[in-house]
Write the structure tokens for this entry.
Amino acid sequence: MTCAFQSPLLFRVYCSTLLTALTLTDTAYAQEPPPALDAAQFRSCLNGLHRSSSFKAITADTFARYTDTLAPDATVLPLLNRQPEFTMPVWDYLAVLVDDERVADGRAAYARWQPQLQQMAQQTGVAANIIVGVWGVESNFGQNLGGRSLVQSLATLSCFGRRQSYFRGEFAAALRILQEGHIAPEKLTGSWAGAFGQTQFMPSTFFRSAVDFDGDGRRDIVDSVPDALASTAKFLQNAGYRRGEPWGFEVRLPPGFDTGGASRKAKKSINAWRRAGLTLAGGNPLPDSLPKAGLLVPARGGPAFLVGRNFDALYSYNASENYALAIAHLSDLMAQPNARLGFATPWPTDDVGLSRAQNRELQILLLARGHDIGSADGMIGAKTREAIKVEQQRLGWKADGRAGQKLLRALYGD
Ligand code: CA
């Protein structure tokens, strides 16, 4: 969460466990092998760090306890350096992030935590279904927290590779979390980049937004669901979330409408959009629930959305419009028990993406054909993509490693 690095060099890396582990960014990445790291250099770097101003809140005892026998973890560096391999279409991204399983799990979670969620919504203004949507996309409702030691990953990234100054701040914050006793040391695990807990906060975000909702004196966003969800609500409130406003809604564009200049950021009044001929997706007039909205068109010819400030708050969680749309869509499905997956306007493709259940089916078919892809876990990683390329070549298709409905049908069919 809260951690997508962006630079003019098109360097964008997501820190959340789910988004990185499942390659669920809108980009898939090629990866290099881990480098050899110099132990003496690591030790001398750590010594220097502790004397630096960023670590002034960390006592000598704390620093020694967590770093004295620490070795660097070279495997985090290729993850920092990976280069985009191909751009994942928005319909693939949404198919796996918002599928029937996640909707069912989310509705169960929404029902289970309803009293606490309502209280959080009252305190922060952030709607209960939005909080649950973030939880589902960030960690699959707490099922996918990430298993890497934050101290080890962040110490390594503080001493090797690019963005060391950024990671030094995160490393110091991680040590402070331990020093203050919010999270047990063995529980402070997460993604390679240091995102942790039920809603994948970076350590610095923890100190800006984490909340002790259950009142035990600790802000435990790993083991306390109420603490984690209240912290997420607080984060969104800090990001400018407005009470009572929807994130936005799907709209129908008038015939011939030019979406070339569409932008989430170019906000206009709802009246201006009405004058331009936009209606709700079903044809009803636009509601007055958003004072101003921007037009989001993730894929030309596909569904279009008017989005407000609350969509921007979701965007700030991971700096991706597709990511924010996944949360928005999942949230709507939490609040509307009879709503169905997908949008009124279909995506402009004849080969939509696969759900996690379908990914597992595809992997079982690949395993049956002798591809060494490990287990059928529903996550399309490098091995599965390589196996897909082999099958695509055999079929005489473009070998791009993409998992889609057409490939699933082809493998079932022969
Ligand atoms: Ca607590």
The chain has a mean pLDDT of 92.
